[in-house]
Design goal:
Shape: globular
Number of helices: 12
Strand content: 15-25%
Structural class: alpha/beta
Number of strands: 13
Largest sheet: 7 strands, parallel
Radius of gyration: 20 Å
Distance between the termini: 13 Å
Strand order of the largest sheet: 5-6-7-8-9-10-11
């Protein structure tokens, strides 16, 4: 392929309800889409982070600079553009995995569209639909939480994830268990809100038969998570601490995690996400696909990834209506038993709807033109 144009499309889409975690509260998905045009096809991707560097060090304005000034000049200099050539071309730029993932995904989408191949086929998917879980943010009261969980279960979601933080953990979990029973697949996500000094408190969660406790301690501290896991029956799941397949192998060897959350953007794209999956699957460690409140452009490739054989736990690939009254693609809708279809079209299998994209677009800029 030959790179002809790269365009950034800044979008802001209101959430149907505010989404609160230990990092803060979101009321809109405010990010950018990346459109890559080649001589054979065009591809789309979604930048996963936010306007502020609260969840991770990357943020919208910074990623645009990294793409424009550092990544695209190296990619544009390639004699032939392929997805496989991107990682070596971008390797000298340290970090910035989410920006790299956005570029890799858009190029991969264009490349696969040119060959008429779905992303799911390329990655090695073994299913054409995947079970959908839902992430429930921190609420103002336990009754409000119970109402939300009840509504999501009525909609068909097969797994509930509760966001927790100090002061909002044991009692909300107990209330959900008492209301909805021990058979409900239930897990919690701390988003790094605790320290190892909280181990005895976190042990109280063992009483509730959780699938896992996700990233309870500061990120990148595998030693502390390994020490915590020795004191918990509940499996520790790592998210923010795992940046690539090498980190995943180290975490498993140290028994710092017994479940792996794969977010493709966090590890630099879908090629590395597949390698993370392969490492965990080879060690018998369950894998599931995390979410970043994606629009349909980000949700579609996540569903393709979640159809790989090692993804044995429901992920955060919720229906479009979980977050948006209107998506920028055709909406993803739960089927009767709580599953979502894996897109079967070429590339990521979806594209923005022109009218919706126009309504939610705040700015468009070219980052590169041949």
């Amino acid at each position: 392929m030959k790179l002809e144009r790269v365009e950034i499309v800044h979008v802001a889409i209101p959430l149907v309800t505010p989404f609160r975690t230990s990092f803060g509260t979101m009321t809109a998905k405010d990010t950018f889409l990346l459109r890559v045009v080649t001589d054979s096809a065009e591809g789309w991707s979604e930048f996963a982070a936010d306007p502020e560097p609260l969840y991770c060090s990357e943020f919208v304005a910074g990623a645009e600079i990294v793409l424009r000034d550092f990544l695209l000049p190296r990619v544009a200099a390639l004699p032939r553009l392929t997805t496989a050539a991107l990682a070596p071309a971008m390797a000298k730029i340290k970090g910035h995995e989410l920006a790299k993932a956005a570029l890799e995904t858009a190029v991969l989408d264009a490349e696969l569209r040119g060959h008429g191949m779905p992303l799911a086929t390329y990655l090695g998917a073994v299913r054409d639909r995947v079970p959908a879980g839902v992430s429930v943010g921190i609420k103002n009261s336990v009754p409000e939480l119970l109402d939300d969980v009840g509504r999501y279960l009525a909609e068909g979601y097969v797994r509930i994830k509760l966001k927790i933080e100090p002061g909002w953990d044991v009692e909300p979990v107990r209330a959900v268990r008492e209301r909805f029973g021990d058979d409900l697949p239930l897990q919690v996500d701390a988003n790094t809100a605790y320290t190892l000094a909280d181990a005895e408190h976190l042990r109280r969660l063992d009483a509730f038969g959780l699938l896992l406790v996700e990233e309870p301690l500061e990120e990148n501290n595998l030693h502390a998570h390994a020490r915590l896991q020795k004191r918990l029956r509940t499996p520790v799941c790592l998210d923010e601490s795992l940046h690539n397949a090498r980190d995943t192998a180290s975490a498993i060897a140290l028994d710092a995690c017994r479940v792996v959350n794969v977010k493709p953007a966090r590890v630099g794209g879908y090629l590395e996400a597949r390698r993370v999956h392969d490492v965990a699957h080879a060690h018998g460690v369950p894998v599931w696909c995390g979410g970043m409140l994606e629009t349909g452009i980000g949700r579609a490739p996540n569903l393709a990834l979640a159809a790989l054989p090692g993804f044995t736990l429901p992920g955060d690939t919720s229906a479009s209506s979980r977050y948006f009254a209107e998506d920028i693609t055709e909406p993803f809708v739960l089927d009767a038993d709580g599953h979502l279809p894996v897109p079967g079209g070429p590339g990521i299998g979806v594209a923005p709807l022109p009218d919706a994209l126009r309504r939610f677009t705040r700015a468009r800029r070219d980052l590169y033109r041949a």
